[in-house]
From TrEMBL:
Protein name according to UniProt: FAD assembly factor SdhE
GO biological process: mitochondrial electron transport, succinate to ubiquinone; mitochondrial respiratory chain complex II assembly; tricarboxylic acid cycle
Record's keyword annotation contains Chaperone: yes
Keywords annotated in UniProt: Chaperone
UniProt-listed PANTHER family: PROTEIN EMI5 HOMOLOG, MITOCHONDRIAL, SUCCINATE DEHYDROGENASE ASSEMBLY FACTOR 2, MITOCHONDRIAL
UniProt-listed InterPro entries: SDH, SDH_sf
Naturally occurring in which organism (per UniProt): marine metagenome
Pfam entry (one): Sdh5
This protein's GO CC annotations: mitochondrion
Amino acid sequence: MLGHEGGRLMAEDLEVRRKRLRYHSWHRGTKELDLVLGQFGEKYLPTMSENDIDLFEAIINQNEHDIYA
């Protein structure tokens, strides 16, 4: 039972991360990045694995100038 409950908590945690990343991908500060990252997030976040979410989160946390480079 603990494993099932832990799995449910993990799934909820991933959903919270997806929602947070969806918001941040649309609110980067520049319209260009909002469009690129926001549309990418809308399309792929719902099916991303935990590892994929980690990688997308690392991109979202980068400085805008580094993403453009």
